[in-house]
Design goal:
2 copies of one chain form a homodimer.
Chain A: H1 10-43, H2 46-77, H3 81-114, H4 123-147, H5 150-180, H6 185-217
Amino acid sequence: MTEKHHHIASAFDRDLEEVQAEIMKMGGLVENAILAAADSLEARDEEMAEKVRENDRAIDELEELINDEAARIIALRAPTAIDLRLVLSVLKISANLERIGDYAKNMAKRTGILVQMAPIEGATVSLKRMARDVQLMLKDALDAYIQRDAALAMDVIHRDRDVDQLYNALFREFLTFMMEDPRNITPCMHLHFIAKNTERMGDHVTAVAEQVVYLVTGEVPDEDRKKRDVTSTDASLSED
Amino acid sequence: MTEKHHHIASAFDRDLEEVQAEIMKMGGLVENAILAAADSLEARDEEMAEKVRENDRAIDELEELINDEAARIIALRAPTAIDLRLVLSVLKISANLERIGDYAKNMAKRTGILVQMAPIEGATVSLKRMARDVQLMLKDALDAYIQRDAALAMDVIHRDRDVDQLYNALFREFLTFMMEDPRNITPCMHLHFIAKNTERMGDHVTAVAEQVVYLVTGEVPDEDRKKRDVTSTDASLSED
């Protein structure tokens, strides 16, 4: 990889590759956390959920390590222009990964509550599909980052719309369940939290992909897609 | 202020003061957005809510300006140690302010929907109290930042618990309303979103205060307070 660059300072390249490797490691842990959180919810497996909660610590520690490393690189190498942009992107990407990890942990927490309630038909299957989509988006965003592949990053950004649509469909489904039977209200509130947090994970993956586009092209992708949550503007929901 | 510092490079001090002034300006806009969003919800004032949504653009633009300025300072002045920490904190604080602004905008969006539904007794008053608490926390966090006052920042961090408690009380209240009458479900879902987002604003204010503590003391405050949302662990909610 170093050969392709045109820097004078190859020490900078080595530092950068090292911290990028930490990003990939952190990304792998977060991908696992997303899937394991959704699996434990579907399987109603309290033990697996507990593991997701425990593993979040390793993700947080990696973020701190990456922050320290990035600050060290800036202080030591005084990078400018594109090199500085590369180091600053490391900070942004790790912050987004940390938030996604937090949401996975929160999902796992709610599994502990939901196992004590009657299951809501079909909900955890839909939630797992959403989580799976987000995990695949994250995988591609990280691949796009390492390969500096703006096209793949744009693809990830577009796929976030599908996640938003899944969320909006679930929101409506939960409302229906709650109206049908008041006993569904408490579990549906928790399931809705999980859906909303998964949708937010998608937003954070999108932010990672946007960083990649910015790194490669120097341009921030179109702001269009930023209407994250149509339930707040959707007229159909105002028909009380 | 410059006199108190012991830097050689006073150009750095001037740059830093300038970007800190932008932070304060951004913070002022965000404080206004929080209050105006809560006021428009309470007054059911669609026009005021529209203004909050429009004003969010100025907040986003300030964040971009601050990001560019911070990158320029790093590239130009190559700060190290505490100076670097100061510049990096600018990036983190502006990112938190931008998120708080987004939540205020989201609150204003939901006002547009809620005015079309029957009001839920007492809810908007409680929400306004929560928003007011968060706005005062933000004001103090920004004062603590400018005055490098770790004690005031710690006070802000502790006050976030009150906001969490207000949120948890509201969560229960909304559940009760929903169970009493299915017609309350849709408005309560929106009101609950607003409560949750206000609670998240408090988390972002806390993150700003933590940056201040870190800047002044070199230590990250205790992780204890990070259990942000007890509804995901609270046994009382599992009694379906």
